[in-house]
Sequence to fold (447 residues):
Amino acid sequence: MAPMAPLAPMAQQAPSTHPVAFLARRAAMALAAAAVLGGAAAPAAYAVDGADGAPAAGSPKKLPEGLYGTKDPQYDGVWRQSLALLAQHTVGVRPATSAVRWLVGQQCADGAFTAFRAEPGKPCDAKTMRDTNQTAAAVQALAALGGHDETVQKAVNWLKSVQNDDGGWSSMAGSPSDANSTSVVVGALAAAGAKPESVTSKKGGRTPYDGLLTFRLGCDVKEGERGAFTFQLKGAAANADATAAAATGALGKGFVVAPAGGAADTPVKPLSCKDGKADGKSGDKGPAAAEGGAGYLVAQLDKNGHHLLSAMPGQEKQPDVGNTADAVVALAAGGHRSAAQQPLKWLEKNAAAWARQNGPAAYAQLVLAAHATGTDPRSFGGTDLVTALNATGPEPAGTTPGKDARAADAAKDSDGGVNVWWVVGVGLAVGAGIGFLLSGRRKKNDL
Fold:
């Protein structure tokens, strides 16, 4: 939902998937997760003003007005801000004007966003590290908030201009495409009203879905990896983070997935191969690929006690909370309600401390996952995710009465108004740079 390559968008070749690996989609989370898992040092916190309004003692800087979180925003500022605003809007909270203004002000004249511009009044130049993940996250947030058509259209135009020949995107323009970056851009195009299938590469006329499908592993790999997605073609190993992102993107969906409500529960059907060929329909490749990805995710979740594991070196046996939340969102997007319940319950028991450590992007990721499953984000395993998210930034401007109630009602079953799901669902290396999804996006395919 992890910046956190997501972890927000900056590219990097980290060896794993979710908690450290690529600033492209989960940057914010990756930074925090790295600290929690002990795999990397978290960025230093910025100072909070003292009672007299002066910067706290010993602090070299002060957070920009309106920015969410207290950690250094160098690698995930736009990512965590976008997720925070989007999550607030989704549950009926009207973000502070200063928070929206800060995000809009981060855009370069050509429409692109980078992770953080300390001097937004200074024009972006050739050295500015424009990032497709940060840009796509900002598009999804600003399109949802409304009133920012020009900003959104400029960003979409820039994304189209850096589409690779294979139909996909990398976190950094000019680099080979990856599944996570392509997925987050698909979500941005859909949010902005641009049909992803109509956005084609200048050379070859390939769509984002064509690009995504190149990362799908089929019948020519070992059985346990079939249906999964790889982060990039190089290495071509099953990657749970990439699979969660692609299973959502292949359905043309972004960070916000509407609750399925009373829709039928769709059984998960892992990719089945007969005589080396995939069984099933040959029609709509996007949904078929998403279903195969869901089958891989469920197998991994079941194997590991209803959660996914970190791919960080030395931390392979540690739970990956953010990627587990992404998997829940992916399952919800595909209508796999029953399959989402066990990982959701695991998140309810285990996600609170992780979110406190990781900050706004982590809380937002959980809020959006709760929304996707019809779960009340204000009572998530004993935690009020909305209040916790709001506390990481400027005071919201207000609320939209009844919005949360409508979302919850949509997920009640036909027998008694009981909530059917409890599912949750969020470069450059630290020192040199870091990279769903934590924000720095370049991961090796070794999960």
Observations:
- The chain has one domain: 27-50+62-410.
- Residues 27-50+62-410 form a domain with the Glycosyltransferase fold (CATH 1.50.10.20).
- The first helix runs from residue 27 to 37.
